[in-house]
Write a structure and sequence with these properties.
Length: 302
């Protein structure tokens, strides 16, 4: 089934070129079906790139999805045209009275900042509090996962000695968990972050359960026992070249970054990286949409 997106959203053409089933608003109006209403809080600097990443894996679901885009009004984006934000994005003030089947909170490259020093922390806290009553299930990604664990459960992050960047192997902690349905016993996921959460802190919280982890990358998937909060510390939404773009950016900035682990063939940055995590990414999002959103949400959201 397709994802329903605004007629003129730039990501539409890119997704159609990749044979992703998208449906613009005009066509969707002719169908008598209640799609899942999914809101994306996009905190990433390159918002248009992140839109494409997330819409790509949402579009692989067998469910019809009506996607809305949200941004924080207390932070002025320097990397996304104001016209794009004005045309396609809303703020929490615009949607506060609405109900949604699901919410996705993206990452942001601000792991080194204390949460309270983030200039939109107050607004983000308002959104996360609002989600408790207005959203069936929320999926938090990377820094968004750390922020969610801190806000909802008081679990803090810890800065790492060096940036974690690369493709890492993960295993399942509880294969019976619905979010992991259909997963291989081992699978790979991209990570790109400078902070981490401690397993011992998660284990102390009875309302949380660890679903997947990696010997090299640490905790990967955490879920609340009621399924309303899902935390993903990696970046399953990344495409084949996202880590390369980050590596090239940091190299050009003179940061002397490490070569992303297990990313380039033979760890040679002159070679073309291969996409090895798409199946897992699609399965993760499909399972979340089916078991934690579709199976739990009321037919009449209001």
């Amino acid at each position: 089934m397709p994802i329903k997106i605004p007629d003129l959203l730039p990501a539409k053409n890119k997704l159609q070129e990749e044979n992703i089933f998208v449906m613009d608003e005009s066509r969707a109006f002719t169908q008598d079906i209640r799609p899942l209403k999914i809101l994306i809080l996009n905190l990433m600097p390159l918002k248009q790139q992140t839109e494409t990443h997330l819409l790509r894996i949402l579009g692989n679901s067998p469910l019809q999805i009506d996607v809305g885009l949200l941004h924080t009004s207390t932070h002025v984006s320097k990397n996304t045209p104001a016209e794009h934000l004005e045309q396609f994005y809303k703020s929490i003030t615009d949607v506060k009275a609405n109900k949604y089947d699901g919410l996705i909170i993206t990452g942001a490259p601000i792991e080194k900042l204390a949460y309270e020093d983030v200039n939109y922390w107050s607004e983000l806290s308002e959104i996360m509090e609002w989600s408790k009553t207005n959203v069936t299930s929320t999926l938090h990604i990377c820094w968004g996962a750390m922020a969610g664990l801190y806000y909802h459960y008081g679990i803090d992050k810890y800065l790492m000695d060096e940036k974690l960047s690369g493709i890492f192997t993960h295993t399942l902690s509880d294969p019976r968990e619905k979010l992991l349905s259909g997963f291989d016993e081992e699978f790979v996921v991209p990570h790109s972050r400078e902070a981490d959460i401690k397993k011992t802190d998660i284990e102390k919280e009875p309302r949380l359960k660890i679903l997947s982890e990696s010997e090299e990358a640490g905790i990967y998937l955490v879920a609340s026992t009621d399924g309303k909060q899902i935390f993903v510390t990696g970046h399953p939404e990344y495409d084949a070249f996202t880590l390369q773009k980050e590596f090239d950016r940091d190299t050009a900035a003179g940061l002397n970054p490490i070569i992303p682990v297990n990313y380039y063939p033979n760890d040679d940055p002159t070679q073309t990286p291969r996409l090895r995590w798409r199946t897992h990414s699609n399965m993760l999002i499909s399972n979340w949409l089916n078991y934690y959103v579709y199976q739990e949400t009321p037919y009449q959201l209001d």
